């Protein structure tokens, strides 16, 4: 087996396999009447998949790897997975609470390990920074887009004043502060999987394929305990709304990463997106099924206007050089 094919299979096995390992028994137990568990955290898996693939397949590069950080990622992912499996069968609130502490305290240690590695090692493996001025501008742009994406549909169909009055600065700041934790996710997505798909399918089609796979990646954990009451609609409505939202952020994050080549740009945008989503409270004025579909069409059109134009910018038209990974994969 070619090295880069093996590398891809390891990445996919860890990134998607852990979700299935947790999600399938969780769904079975839920439908047998045992109730839902906390669901755990997905965010460690993509980075762990890439790190494990690098450590196993790129033996000749181990001396240049940020091994403190890589070891921390693998340890945190292993602990998270074990606690999620225990939570499935023991169903103890203490385990769910312990898992939350492990994730946040573990990431704190991960930050320390990150800076213990040499800067050259971090830069050589996609963990360096750069283009911070452009990153700041892109964050400001995405903040405006988030505001428009949330408020415009409500302005057309609901009560934007209610939404703005019930904006929670505390929720926004609390979620924004923990944005660096998304490095555990974005390192695998932006530094490996998205570029690989773009080289296979092209810059635009690759991002669209990535957006679809990124959304499917969430389903093994999201869908087993789906509740129409909590989601505010049927399963099909929930999937459609999420699909539009995820494809939009996938397009913008691809654009931002390609502009800056800085994984932290994607990390901060991801954090900003989630912070904005939880900080606004809808008035829930649209309750009838037919009215929901009107609301969805409005949301879809607003999302198309806000995100699709980025696919026609110069960054998506420039040729993409083939890398060793795609050459060995025959793509």
Residues in β-strands, percent: under 5%
Poorly predicted runs are 322-331
- Major β-sheet annotation: none
Shape by Cα distribution: globular
Task: Tell me the distance between the termini.
Answer: 15 Å
What integer is the average pLDDT? Answer: 88
Succession of helices and strands? HHHHHHHHHHHHHHH
- Specify Rg, calculated over alpha carbons: 20 Å
Explain this structure to me?
It is a single chain. Helix 2 (45-57) packs across helix 3, helix 6 packs antiparallel against helix 12 (235-260) and helix 10 crosses helix 12. This protein has 15 helices and no strands. It has 331 residues and is mostly helical. The protein has helices spanning 3-34, 45-57, 67-90, 93-116, 119-124, 132-157, 160-165, 169-177, 183-201, 203-222, 228-231, 235-260, 263-279, 289-307, 324-329. The model is unreliable at 322-331 (pLDDT under 50).
Draw up the topology in text.
Blueprint: H1 3-34, H2 45-57, H3 67-90, H4 93-116, H5 119-124, H6 132-157, H7 160-165, H8 169-177, H9 183-201, H10 203-222, H11 228-231, H12 235-260, H13 263-279, H14 289-307, H15 324-329
Helix pairs in contact: 1-2, 1-3, 1-10, 2-3, 2-9, 3-4, 6-12, 6-13, 6-14, 8-13, 9-10, 9-13, 10-12, 12-13, 12-14
Task: Jot down its keywords.
331 residues; mainly alpha; 15 helices; disordered C terminus
What's the short story on this structure?
With 331 residues, this protein is mainly α. The protein has helices at 3-34, 45-57, 67-90, 93-116, 119-124, 132-157, 160-165, 169-177, 183-201, 203-222, 228-231, 235-260, 263-279, 289-307, 324-329. Helix 1 (3-34) runs parallel beside helix 10, helix 9 packs across helix 13 and helix 12 (235-260) packs antiparallel against helix 13 (263-279).
